[in-house]
Amino acid sequence: MGDKKFSDLGLREDVLKSIDDMGFEEPSKIQAEVIPVLLEGFDVIGQAQTGTGKTLAFGAPILSSMVKSEGKINTIILTPTRELAIQVNDELNRIAKYVKVKLLPVYGGQPIDRQIKALKRGIDIVVGTPGRVLDLMRRRVIDLSNIKFFVLDEADEMLNMGFIDDIEEVIKNCSKERQTMLFSATMPSEIKKLAQRYMKKDTKHISIVKNEMTVSTVHQYYYEIKQKDRFESLCRILDVEEPSTAIIFCKTKRGVDELVESMQARGYNVEGMHGDMNQNQRLNTLKKFKEGNLDFLAATDVAARGIDVENVTHVINYDLPQDTESYVHRIGRTGRAKREGVAYTLVTAREYMALKQIEKATKGKIKRKDIPTVDEIFESKYKSILVKVKETLEDEEYKRFVPLAAELDDDFNLVDVAAALLNMIYDREVSYDYTKNDIGSTSNYTRLFLTVGRMDRLNPKQLVQFLSETANISKEDIGDIDILEKFSFVNVNEGAVDSIIKYCTGKNLSGRRVKIEISKKR
């Protein structure tokens, strides 16, 4: 990565504008190395872990090099699962914000007629699972004889899921003049053979060495939130946890400015740091933070790189980072000098799977916490106010107010007076005007019990795919997943419960007929 910027890589201006809107200040390692090589026209094998920004690594150069041919598919991208197809398509739509291009995800579990109609109207980029792409090819709806770009994403996952024959059949129908891109976390022999058979002799193999990504002194937690409640959720967390020194990470420069403005308006002692600020501004802000004159620092990943402050107690990911390495850099700002630190991450249901990928890559456990209720905030503040009152009573300073208190005693009950003063302190310390006791995103979730677990080699990705495809529900209906040794629990939206129980019970999941029922309250 170093000091390389996206503008140094040779991408089109309209693509760079989209990347800037997405808030990425600099490329990840795989992006910095792969993009220039793809723009030169080479076939590429990109070897990097999940969560390193591979979609942008191939998407940005494809969109920068694309010359549209009316009515003909320009690019085919194969992914192992429906979820990944949707995710890649969504990411490409963001990168193509200022590029006139039509994209379509195709996968099982969705009516094929709708996909056929869209393809007949003309699509430039197709993102799909091998089975559905083959089905559409056999129906003569997808023609790959003129494609310019072929991408095989998560190739090792494709292999594990038994798609190798389907992939070969798709490739054999592709234009011989195509540029081929293969991305995989590992390089098993079957993938190497596939590359030798179908990629050019001058193919470039770019491997990003995996650093050991563990932060053993940091306790990691996440809060599942609703997007509209992101800021209120942060305020609730800060009001209950009362971190003494915290760095709050945002994905974009604009995000930092908006967060700082909102926090300062509610009395938080906070300032921001990002790439648009001059060196003096950043140094002054960092000096205040180091000297303890700021409680909170809101920052982007790039701006925070130079921060070396030993007493940071908390790191809060207000937004998820763009890759796993950035997550590790972020939470590494706390838990220094053999001290323990705490990292909190705010995620929506849509972002949950990305968090699970980070958890897998870091080999750490990111535990769930519930968004604090107003009752819990009151309890927390009551305890801290009580400590301050006791400390004041142990000091002699308060005695100058005894005559005033005696005057109040003539007109009021002194217990009421004390309660009124405590209320004044509470109102000053609670920053947000909370209107609901509970905004936890799982309030509309039902917890389901499933008779399949780790011993059946079940993983969250499989479970999400099974439930969404079998019950024909959206992945956004699926929340927290806990996979235990012999059974599992999953939170799902109340509206999806009947479909899951009706269509999934008795079906084969990870080699076992699964029974599903509503779990008893924990």
Task: Note down, in words, how this protein is organized.
The mean pLDDT is 88. Helix 3 packs across helix 4. The chain has 20 helices and 20 strands. It is 41% helix and 17% strand. Strands 3-4-2-5-6-1-7 form a seven-stranded parallel sheet, with helices on both faces. A seven-stranded parallel sheet has the order 10-11-9-12-13-8-14, with helices on both faces. A four-stranded antiparallel sheet has the order 16-17-15-20, with helices on one face. The protein has 522 residues and is of the alpha/beta class. The protein folds into four domains: 6-207, Rossmann fold (3-Layer(aba) Sandwich); 218-372, Rossmann fold; 375-429, no CATH class; 441-518, 2-Layer Sandwich (Alpha-Beta Plaits). InterPro entries: DbpA/CsdA_RNA-bd_dom, DEAD/DEAH_box_helicase_dom, DEAD/DEAH_RhlB, DEAD_box_RNA_helicases, DeaD_dimer, Helicase_ATP-bd, Helicase_C-like, Nucleotide-bd_a/b_plait_sf. Keywords: ATP-binding, Cytoplasm, Helicase, Hydrolase, Nucleotide-binding, Stress response. A motif (Q motif) lies at residues 4-32. Residues 217-379 form the Helicase C-terminal domain. Pfam families: DbpA (PF03880), DEAD (PF00270), DeaD_dimer (PF25399), Helicase_C (PF00271).
